[in-house]
Amino acid sequence: TYRKKVALADTVYIACMNGLWDAFRRTSNKAKFLWDDQLTDYTKRDADKFQHGWAEVGEVYYPLNIGSNHWVLVQIYLPAHMLTVYDSNQALYDDACVEQAMHPMMKMLPYFLLNVKRVTDRDDLNFTTTMKPRDFDVRRLPPNVVPQTTKR
């Protein structure tokens, strides 16, 4: 179905990540934050569901509900540390609201990935445990625009 190796995350994954936001935000040493096994299991290969592990893919897609009434599609482009939001109705919420909804993932995802086996071994992701990993950036695109990816 897909031209590239991608992975999909569902609303349970996003709800769990967002549910950890307050605890993560209060943690002084974010690199030592304890991630739930349920979350890290999402990154593992699941051949029964035709799911690639995050160590094998460049992109992860997930649905996000903004304001409890508007769904968008988010693409995590791992090598570029980029979260791209595909929004079918950009008039509903301004960029500030979308960025606020994306803020927990922007901050937590780099630290989460540091705790995922085999993902940190990838040369193209440039993760390190000795310094603060950089946040993921966010860009918002209308539904008919295909993003141009850049190599960093």
UniProtKB/TrEMBL annotation:
Superkingdom, taxonomy of origin: Eukaryota
Transmembrane portions of the chain: none
Keywords, ordered alphabetically: Hydrolase, Protease
GO MF, any single term: cysteine-type peptidase activity
Entry keyword Magnesium: no
SUPFAM superfamilies registered for this protein in UniProt: Cysteine proteinases
Domain Ubiquitin-like protease family profile: 1-152
One of the GO BP terms on file: proteolysis
Family note: Belongs to the peptidase C48 family.
Protein name (database record): Ulp1 protease family, C-terminal catalytic domain containing protein
Organism encoding this protein: Parasponia andersonii (Sponia andersonii)
